[in-house]
Design brief:
It is built from 13 helices and 15 strands. The protein is α+β, with helices and mostly antiparallel strands and 465 residues long. The strands form two sheets. Strands 7, 8, 9, 10, 11, 12, 13, 14 and 15 form a nine-stranded mixed beta sheet that branches. The longest helix is centred in the middle third of the chain and has 21 residues. The chain starts with 17 loop residues before the first helix and ends with a helix.
Amino acid sequence: MTHQNTTRRTVPPSRLALEDLRTAIADGRIQTVLLAVVDAQGRAKGKAYNARFFLDQLVDGDAAGEMCAYIFATDMEMTPLPGFELTGWQAGYGDVRLVPDLGSARLLPWLPRTALVFADALGADEQPVPVAPATILRRQIEALAGLGLTVKTGLEAEFILYQGTLAQAAAAGFRGLRPVTADNRDYALDYPAELVRYTTRLTAALAGAGHPVEAVKGEGAPGQVEVTFPYGDPVAACEQHVLLKHAARAIGERQRLVPTFMAAPADRVASGLHLHVSLWRGEEPVLADRERPGELSELGRQVVAGLLEGLPELAPLYAPNANSYKRYRPHSFAPTSYTWGRDNRSCAVRVVGHGRGLHLEIRLPGADASPHLALAATLAAARCGIEGSLKPPAATTGDGYRDHADAAVPTSLREALRLFEASTLAGDLLGPDVVAHYANLAQAELRVHDARVTDVELARGFAQT
């Protein structure tokens, strides 16, 4: 009896087909297999299996991989939280079963003799866990497939790279850290040697894992790096981002550099996760108007309208933390209103590209977003526009930070949560179980912040009250 899922996708040439995995394990090139799921924070979590055991028992045998269901119901610090239907003390914190998706097997060049396989998490009913990020995304992809549409996605990921180790950063309270570059190196071609070594190792490692990078560039903040991946399958695009974070930390540790994917790690510093999305019917892209080059088709306009209608009520899925909202500042290159425009970086939805390559860039998610959840929210909102035949407002030209108070992005997680919980649309698009689950996570995040005294409070009030 086999448990693995081998039908969800074909194996790209850069991945390990099952027979290649068997051969690599037999000759000792692979000794460890990481069986992983993506948690609510967008991180790879799982177990490291002896490679022979993985093949003999989880692939060829009757054993099943298992993991505590709380993996989908904790905060970023892995704190068990109350209030979830999925798991909790009322259910004894039982396990979910992991079904290996062997189409996802790949080497991890940044770990010795190690491969990684993503898994589907199944509940007691043998169905995919409905609140798992991978399940939520897959259901949105399937819903669009029901409309005859397929999705292509490419991600741009920003992060800040600091000098030193994670232990040193923690000992300093994550304050006063020194970025790997001291100034703005946006589009620079003269990186310090230390940064060149890091990005060279990172891109080589990702290519070895089957995720070749399209481009790497410096960004506008000291120590900020942007990594862009090629367009392609949406599930693979999200997995690329999850593994980018894993590789960035592992390679940084060896080089005594530490990355952060916080949305706003310092005052007036912000990192985004931009989603580039297009829709296709068969081999034809459908967002561009075939008769008017450079213009959106009617369906493309419906998608834009859906994004502007739906994303305001789905913010906890693409801006999940209290810190997420400190990124949305005027003239910061992060949007402050739900607007759209042609090649306009002040908008939440940027129409970009040419000819058949015309597509949408969603600029709302921060670097801290789970890629699966952010993309699921985007696709759900797009579907809302298509199914409702919605029409967008006029495109924004010029400075999108002006005169859009009626379409403002939430300024706090508390405000975003209020909209999310009150939204009928969110429940219709995602399901009430998903809304309840991620609302509970947002409430837990707020409780942590409400109970803590901040540096700002001390600096302003210690001697003045």
